[in-house]
Amino acid sequence: MAATLSRRSVFKVLAGVVAVASGGKAQYGYAPSLAYPALKVGNINNLRDGQAVYFNYPDGSAQGVLVKLGQRAIGGVGRGRDIVAFSAACTHMGCGVQFKGGRFVCPCHYSMFDPAKAGQCYQGLASTPLPQIRLRVAQNGDLLAQGVVGLIWGRARNI
Amino acid sequence: MSYERRDQLPIPPRNATVRNTVCQYCNVGCGYKVYTWPVGTQGGLEASQNAFGVNLSAQPPIAGQTYSETMHSIVTNKDGVQYHVVIVPAKDSPINLNGDHSSRGATNAIATFSEGRATRERLKYPMLRVGDQFQVITWQEALNILCGVAKGIRDKDGNDDNIAVKAFDHGASGAGFENNYGVGSLFFKGFSVKHIAIHNRPAYNSEVWGSRERGVHELNYDASDARLADTIVLWGANTYETGSVFYTEHMLPNLRGATIPEKQQSLERNEPVEAAYMIVVDPRRTSSLTIAQTAAPGRTLHLRPNLGTDYILANAIARVIWERGYYNMQYLQNRTDMAKFEEYKAKSLKLGTPYAEFMAQASRITGVPRADIEKAADWIAKPKTGGFRRRTLTIYEKGMIWNMKNYDQIAALVQMAVLSQNIGRPGTGCGRQGGHQEGYVRPPSPTPGSIYNGGPPVNVDKYLTDGGGKLYWVIGTNPYLSTPNNQLFRKRIHERTKALTDYLGQSGEPGTTEGYVTKVLEGLEATGGLFMVVQDLYMIHTALDAHLLLPASAWGEANQTSINCNSRLLRLYEKFMDPPGEAKQDWEICKLVGLRMADLYRKDGNEAEARKFEFGKGWNKDEDVFLAGASEFPDNNIPASEEATLPAECYKGVTYAFLKQVGQQGIRTPVRMENGKPVGTLRRYSTKFGTKDGKFSWYGTDDWEGYPPEVQKYLEGDMAQKYPFWMTTGRAQVIWQTMYNDRFLPEKMLTLPLPYIELHPQDAQRLSIKSGDIVEVWNEEGNGTFMVYVTDAVKPGLIFALQYHTRGTSNSMVSGYTDPKTTIPWYKGTRVAIRKLSGGLPDVTSNTSLLAQNKFD
Q1: Cα–Cα distance between B337 and B700 in angstroms, integer?
Q2: Where would I find the Molybdopterin oxidoreductase domain in this sequence (chain B) (predicted)?
Q3: Tens-digit pLDDT profile for chain A (159 aa)?
């Protein structure tokens, strides 16, 4: 069910622009400050506690990861407020983080991030939390990604 | 709750100004590039459109340019123009290979001063306490008051005994050779101060006289040695958290076997090479250990000595090395003092005690099984197939330095390394990891060495808390968090400074400079009080009791030079912005104080004294001070074989122009001159040690004598019941030192909002304490409140406390004991009681991660 899309096709399935760059702070990029696509990244009925689902967002070259933690999380959606999504690129040097034992671990230099605490880097060399991908639950249970709070590693602009 | 995040950053345009610098924080000294350009323009995402020369829409992991949210800020210079400042890891540094960087260095940009960010809290102007408030004054007024008080004290006393100082003596962190020389010149050339203590301890001393007096300076290896070693020993050093990039770029690749090609290229022909082994000697299961266990299963060894017993353990490993013949007698005879070796054999190796009995004793004292001690000796010293000598790099830090019996601890360790010939060869060394970087150059200081060499130095904390001193001048350090027996220290200094404040007036205070100075001088005599001066970046905890505040300028606000610890790499840290308000470099403040003192003496007709204070007359720019400092070093026109005769930081012959030319490659001190050109030293002591005869000077360590009375009292009778936990202390990855900058950064304060302790799950269950609870920790010395992490990092019955945090210090519970040989405190061992505070702080537990920081698999 993970959506794999190229950068171009993301914009074809774009359900609506949910954030618009405007206002004073936007010029320095306080997130979300860009016109992010809304994109289905899963369905709430298909998630199991402790399982990670990888997808691409906001475009085909950025990997995101969706997890249902089974415990309330900052920014969580769903009945238990326990479903969260993040950029999967470690904010230290861009390696793909792995979801193990309820947290994200980077295999390169061992930064670790807490998905229940807005992606906080509680150990390691990364200086910022994992960028959190905002989620919305549609009536049919579809999970829609609709913005990224935080800068995706390797980019100077998320989109 | 989180905090404002960013999803786009301004892009440095191709014409942005690029400067080289080095991180202001830890011992590693990662190289950084600073890009600045006026606000209003920016570059583009394409490689051809930006100053990085890389595509910023999607870079490949690791190979790309890290530009994180914390690496950008906007500053306003004195010309009124706003500039973007981007500080990113350099790609051409021999230290932070691959553009690696830590969570400390990544925040260099957001720690810059701005009126628009929390760093607006920087001190901008001199300030004088009037009653219970600080009022802004001019520099001229501040100098008149300070020099008036200092001269008044000298005139009355006829000496400088009552002028007490606590000052930084290190590199980076806004210090460097320039500011060290400024401070040293003021107090050792102008004044002749003997009551002076270093930033993090109560006296003016080396933390490693136990090594230096053997002929081994503590910075003797190169970062590349961690890539070439067969075995890496981390002894009381948690490098992953306190020297992160040294661990990830130099140790971890070796553990993973990624440096085997380098070994094949650099080491001897046919020498067997493989991935490294790692021995961690630490009472905790540190992240440095558990990462190694994850990355190199089966090639790690953890020794967990009882607190204070490390020197017994080092001697026991050395005894095994001796018994198993893992030494090279020819080397010992050629390179070490064999007369003194007899004392070492008798007292440290205790060859008079049969091996089995000796090992049983060592095991009983240290709590480390004999088999592990023997395994450690094999890993450190057992020759490799073909008779090749093993290459072991031993890195130690505060776990050894701030241990009980500082001198013997350090001596035992360096002797273990020399016995196994593990100094001066590629892949070897025995030295400090370091906390901060270094940059020491000063006129001769009052204490030459340990008790064996003209010491021990005076305990200035004790001098002050016992009522000594009239002027207390604190520069670039925060003793209200960092000094031992902290609660007593704070209470006494507060009492003494307040006594003077109260004397100055029930309500109104003298309104003229002369009247104020006269009243201060009178008050000092009448009350036994203290006049306290704090020279710093911020209104630190200590400043709250000061009378006079002097604003210092920081890293990036002037050109500075320092060396790092893992390679003694000297580089230029280029100025990229102006200081806030009227803040000045410490060297300039010292120069101005000196010149004002000279004026006062000249008015008295005392020309000789005036001249002493004019040390800084010719200092107009940073490089003038750097070059003046070089005059303290001896002649360095010497061959490479004589490098051991030079001070470790000797940079004579180096100029800013030279450093600009070599950029991130820098030059390794000690620097020698060859044919008029500066030449660096990759690795020390390959041919001689740093003693008069060039031979390593052995020493016989003391026997185990138990704990000092300050701690032993907690192990007896009722006290043992009342204070059932051992407490050790240390640092954490997330924050830097006293958090002087970090407390203004949300990335830091949300992740580590409170000082904390680590508690073993068994103890936690017994006391009904869980992660996130708030506890009081106390003993007869002091009290503190801490957040709890329940973790297997500690053993049952032992807690680890973060040494200090802007919201509290575990040094309150630390005793006033210091090693009688060196006056170095034992910060890392005492006994405490713990109780859970009823209720909790839901805001903390809902925003701060409580996950295990040492579990990576």
Answers
A1: 13
A2: 122-489, 531-591
A3: 334 444 434 433 333 333 333 333 445 568 999 999 999 999 999 999 999 999 999 999 999 999 999 999 999 999 999 999 999 999 999 999 999 999 999 999 999 999 999 999 999 999 999 999 999 999 999 999 999 999 999 999 999
DSSP helix, strand, coil percent of chain A (3-state; round to 5)? 10, 35, 55
Check A150 against B6: CB less than 8 A apart.
yes
Using CA coordinates, name the residue in chain B closest to A36.
Answer: B7
DSSP helix, strand, coil percent of chain B (3-state; round to 5) = 35, 20, 50
Distances B475 to B128, B164, B742 between C-alpha atoms, Å:
16, 11, 19
Residue of A62, A84, A92, A129 with catalytic role: A92
Cβ–Cβ below 8 Å for B69 and A128: yes
Q: Which residue has the tokens 């002050």?
A: B464
Task: Compute the nearest-CA separation of B851 from chain A (Å).
Answer: 7
CA angle at B366 for the pair B364 and B369, rounded to the nearest 5°: 70
Judge: A127–B70 Cβ closer than 8 Å, yes or no. Answer: yes
Task: Verify whether residue A92 is a known catalytic residue.
Answer: yes
Q: Which residue is catalytic, options A109, A123, A138, A154?
A: A109
Cβ contact, residue pair B294, A110, below 8 Å? yes
* Right CATH for B220-432 from 1.10.150.20, 2.60.40.10, 3.40.50.300, 3.40.228.10: 3.40.228.10
Is A139 a catalytic site residue? no
CATH of B17-109, one of 3.40.640.10, 2.60.40.4210, 3.10.290.10, 2.60.120.10: 2.60.40.4210
B101 and A125 within 8 Å at the Cβ level: the answer is yes
The tokens describing B129, both together, are 């306490």
Rounded to the nearest angstrom, the minimum Cα separation between A97 and chain B is: 11
The domain segmentation of chain A, as residue ranges, is: 7-149
pLDDT band at B174 (very low <50, low <70, confident <90, very high): confident
- Kindly provide the ipTM of the predicted complex, given to two decimals: 0.97
Rg, chain A, Cα only:
15
Backbone φ/ψ region at B53: left (φ over 0), alpha (ψ -120 to 50), beta: left
SS3 A1: coil
Is residue B499 packed enough to be buried (19+ CB in 10 Å), middle (13-18) or exposed (0-12)?
middle
**pLDDT digits 0-9 by tens, B772-807:** 999 999 999 999 999 999 999 999 999 999 999 999
The CATH classification number of A7-149 equals 2.102.10.10
Helix (H/G/I), strand (E/B), else coil: B253 = helix
Q: What angle do CA B595, B600, B602 make, to 5 degrees?
A: 90
Q: Which of B107, B242, B128 is nearest to B516 (CA)?
A: B128
Find which of A110, A130, A132, A134 to mutate to test the B interface (most B CBs within 10 Å of its CB): A110
